[in-house]
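# step 3/5: fold
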Amino acid sequence: MRDIRVAKPYARALYEAALEQNALADIVADIEKLRELIEESEEFVQLISSPVLSPQFKSETFEQVFADATHPLTINFLKLLALKQRERYLTAMMDVFSAIVDEAAGRLVAQVTTVAPLTSEQAEQLIQHLGAYSGKQVRLETTIDAQIQGGFIVRLDDTVFDASVSTQLQHLKQQLAEG
């Protein structure tokens, strides 16, 4: 809960600065690169979460690491987080930033859980069906969960479509138990 309260003003400020500088597409791309970096690099996660490293060191490291392939606004944002000792909230800030961008674009986020990664064709079909259902543009966020055994679960706004094998088996078990 605290993460969101801290994240909202920073994410909103980044969004507004990106709009002012006409750099929203660049910042969105940078945010996606940062997400990938957090998923792939334990060293980067340790850097942003370490209370031992000084804010100045983290700020300088962000500048050195991201100088060539990142928009200056993103670098300044990361440096500000380091100097204010808020970098540990970066993931929450990126989530809030993405939600702001999606809302401004009239786009809904569908959270999709599957056993195996979706093919690009499956993802495109799902986007089309959910778009037709909602009347809005849809962006997928996918997660893999072997416990659903097969099928998928989609959360779109307040609606859940549960076509997982585990849920179907549970319903069948209930029907058999009830006679």
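# step 4/5: annotate
The first strand starts at residue 107 and ends at 114.
# step 5/5: archive (pending)
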